[in-house]
Amino acid sequence: GQNIDQPTEMTATEGAIVQINCTYQTSGFNGLFWYQQHAGEAPTFLSYNVLDGLEEKGRFSSFLSRSKGYSYLLLKELQMKDSASYLCAAMDSNYQLIWGAGTKLIIKP
Amino acid sequence: GAVVSQHPSWVICKSGTSVKIECRSLDFQATTMFWYRQFPKQSLMLMATSNEGSKATYEQGVEKDKFLINHASLTLSTLTVTSAHPEDSSFYICSVTGGGFSYEQYFGPGTRLTVT
Q1: Chain B contact for A86 (CB, 8 A cutoff)
Q2: Which end of chain B has less neighbouring CB within 10 Å, N or C?
Q3: CA distances for A89 relative to A47, A75, A98, B44, B68, angstroms
Q4: Weakest-pLDDT range from A12-16, B4-8, B41-45
């Protein structure tokens, strides 16, 4: 079956760095997405990886290892506004997104 | 990215009534739109894929006669929850893909439905 695993909740300190891991098992693979979702709002796109390696975009970076079925989202210089849920989603061979349950990130001052 | 709107942003209705939710792609012609449902503290659940000019493709377990989807134009898809019940109370979100070789999905702001 198809499955996405990510931690349910993480806590980090303002100004620090946090890494949110995601492992996936899909029928075929057409890329890995990370979305940010604040409470009560719709998700917003953060990143898309289809090749192995690290993609850096400002304070956020995303890494993919296709051979390991593994990705992580790295958030640097954490700010209070980064408190949100972070959703990992893998695209299968039919270009369907398989969604993880999300990781709730709590930032403490 | 694409700009997507939804209307209404929230709605309260009585059990047994029907509710229509509109999803509009404001700056992009979307041949495909997606409808999701999200219960509190849970992830997104794809309900159906809405294709312009043809019938929607529903995910397993989603009643197509209860959740009517109409994709009448390249910029508008509607979801009608018929004979709503309290268990249908949820956050309904639509999205569009970027098109071409862009697979990212752009989401509308969502509609919070509460059935009393």
Answers
A1: no
A2: C
A3: 10, 17, 5, 10, 26
A4: B41-45
